[in-house]
Fold:
Amino acid sequence: MLRILGLAGALTCLIWTLSSCEKSGSDKYVIAGPVVHPAMEAAWQDISLTDPPASAIPPRWKPHDPTIDPGDIGNSVAGSAARDGWFRKFLRRIRCAVSSCEPGPLETLGSPAEPTTVTGGVDFEGIPATGYVVPDPVGDIGPEHYVQAVNSAFRVFDTKGNALTEPLFISYLWKDIDSPCNDMDPVDPIVRYDKQARRWLISGFILPSSAYMCIAVSQTPDPSSGQWFLYTFKAEDPVSQQPFSIDFPKLSVWPDAYYLSTIEGYDLGLDVWALERSKMLAGQAAGIVRFHLPKPGIPLLPGDPDGPSPGAGSPAWFARQLDGERIGDGEDRVEVYGFSVDWSNTGNSSFVQEDVLPVEPFDSIICSTQTLDACVPQKGTSQVLETLSSWPQWRLQYRNMGDHESLLFNHTIDTDGTGHAGIRWYELRRPTAGNWLVAQQGTHSDENLHYFMGGISMDRNGNIALGYAASSPGVYPGIRIAHRMAGDAPGSMPGTGYLAVAGAGSQIEENSRWGNYSTLDVDPGDDCTFWYTHEYYETSSAAGWSTRIISFKLPGCS
Structure:
């Protein structure tokens, strides 16, 4: 019988190609490059954020006001979207019989605490509707401030929830600066707190040209100060000077660089960038190194650290999930890449596919092959919501746990084959000097609710929290929190009882765009307190969304 299975496994390798059947780490795929871009120049800014002109404050959207759809996502369709790919699934079952597809062993970091209840902290309203049909709420927490951003505004709060500024257009940071970031509103914002440097970053890209990236770096630890270093760069080939599109930009902080990922389109591929952090912190001309990956243009998330810094010389880690059936090239998997930049000789920089990890099968097609897969029902309306299920959800949290490294992220899937949305999550681990493995994976779902657009992070004790949107025909979209303790059974998420914000309205009038992501961060002060921001509606409308900022702790971490 084993011989038969072995022959079947060999046949599988011939069909899927040998490389897909090698054990993780046996071969590493080096991406061609790098592309070295001209250094981006800095502009120095000193303006008032606490006493701004009225023109810097976006008016709150009201019913019948015009709306803005950033239109930043093309409705790309993967090459293969057959829901009944039974042959591939059959081959995968054969392969798993020969070479186990089970997760690697999970070290227990602690014992479950009783009761595993969430301890609430602050809970306050974030930036209200700005006129964009999607908010894309993001934020980050520092020792004294929380900074939130939406399309296309930001606001500074203290850690008790008191607003220190009005909502301000992100473009206001470039006031009187000769830059497209001053002329147009940056969208798809990201906010990051650089813990080692005690600085803040706010980024976005420009539409409709979709080739300009805007990054602001605070000159001080106080983000309500008007002192910022401002960077604008154009995505264009340095030889031909031909611009190319960027989308879904995700920015992270690493010791040797600020790392950025963008996509050009499903058929055009994606790009990963290293931006010279040390120069950006000093307001100097900063280097740019880029690698391009071909189709599929499914985003790679850059690792974003919490807790202890990565080890000296560690590459910056990137990861994504791929639905093999959807993209038509084999099994469902997670890919991990390492970006090593050499600022003294940029030509020595490398971007390497370090590991390809088989995972439990999943279906990223909820009800549509489109990127904007409007599938989730809401209360009181026939309008359904999109889930962005083919893309990984922000952010890819990185932790250095001493004897191993950890990466944590999530995405939305069809949990039962009937178009019922739930959240698949992964913890990847890499032992010292070893390869990445899937330490645990789980699917968080409820037969009565659709879960989607999650944010996931781990505290210093190894406890994990998951925030997400939830909706159903009988429940308005709201914000929920699930969690697991480090000692819970691997892959489980038993702490599911926290309704953070009960929605009181639905998104209507033919607007299916719920947004692109939410953000769950960990307070650098205690490395225990989670901070989450997401959207909801207080009353049904086309674009009258609200945002909420919530902090909480899990048991045994203080």
In short: DSSP finds five helices and 33 strands in the chain. The chain has one domain: 2-553. Residues 2-553 form a domain with the Methylamine Dehydrogenase; Chain H fold (CATH 2.130.10). The first strand starts at residue 29 and ends at 30.
